[in-house]
Amino acid sequence: MILPTLLPLILQQQDGEGGFFFPPVAxxxxxxxxxxxxxxxxxxxxxxxxxxxxxxxxVWKYHHTKCPEPQPSPVHNNxxxxxxxxxxxxxxxxxxxxxxxxxxxRKTPPPDAYEIHxxxxxWSWNFTYPDGTESSVLHLxxxxxxxxxxxxxxxxxxxxxxxxxxxxxxVPGRYxxxxxxxxxxxxxxxxxxxxxxxxxxxxxxxxxxxxxxxxDAWLSEAGDFMTKLSPIxxxxxxxxxxxxxxxxxxxxVAGIGPALNxxxxxxxxxxxxxxxxxxxxxxxxxxxxxxxxIADGFQPIMPTFQGQLDDDKMRxxxxxxxxxx
Length: 325
Ligand SMILES: [Cu+2]
Hints:
The chain has 325 residues and is an alpha+beta fold. The chain has three domains: 2-66 and 73-107; 114-225, Cupredoxins -  blue copper proteins (Immunoglobulin-like); 226-323, Cytochrome c-like domain (Cytochrome Bc1 Complex, Chain D, domain 2). Helix content is 38%, strand content 18%. The chain has helices spanning 2-11, 28-61, 78-107, 212-223, 225-228, 231-241, 280-288, 311-323; strands spanning 114-121, 124-128, 134-135, 138-141, 146-152, 157-161, 166-170, 176-180, 186-192, 205-210, 267-269, 275-277. Strands 3-2-1-5-8 form a five-stranded mixed sheet, with no helix packed on it. It has a five-stranded mixed sheet with strand order 4-10-9-6-7. α2 (28-61) runs antiparallel to α3 (78-107) and α6 crosses α8. The longest helix is centred in the N-terminal third of the chain and has 34 residues, at 28-61. The protein binds copper (II) ion. Copper (II) ion is lined by residues 120, 157, 192, 194, 196, 200, 203. Residues 120, 157, 192, 194, 196, 200, 203 line the site of copper (II) ion (CU).
């Protein structure tokens, strides 16, 4: 029997770690939406049972073998009709109000929320902190309201963190936002939930919830990597945080874009038949105006990094690419 097996799983108390059907409960919104979801689920179960059992009972009680002659309809029972109209009306109005309030709360971040900018592009997320620090992993302080402003560099994406019960489409050309307060330490999956091309399924990263102290330590460490690390190591960081690896291998395997190791100083054949030296200027142009020169055998789908990479970052990227053999 499927029901006795499923029932304990459905009724299972949702604790912080999540249940069989649900991911962890790691934000205030997760607590609110799960409790409403389970209330509605249990109510539906209750009404399902009432209706089905009453039906079965009537089938048995008014079976034609028990009263073979047609009977006139009995008079109305006002009490019971008022009850079955008023009680569900109140319940449905309450469900609507709860849902509506939850919806409004999701749309109204507190004014003092900590702001993080999330940029979606094929096929990675980039998170920028108030001090300009960038990361491909979403780092968050525990217990602090966080507002994530969203934008897309290319096509429709959707930021989805199941453990926080937040999901918001990112429409190119406009800003979106979502907010929540992380309530649990740990690492949680972050997805893109809107099909955005070939590597959509690889557009995944992690949200790491730290204690405030650890978060501050992470932020200051990540913030000055440009001065602390060697140019090559800094370039590797920029390469990772800007999502270059979504299209470029550094191990000699051509993917969506050409492999970038061992290229520096070589001749690059272009799609129009001409060729160019793979040098610092070519890399720079590839970043700022990717369609100016198209590498032979590849599609012109590299997004521009105009406005997203300053001269320093491009310099360390060049050093990094130079170092790859
Ligand atoms: Cu996407």
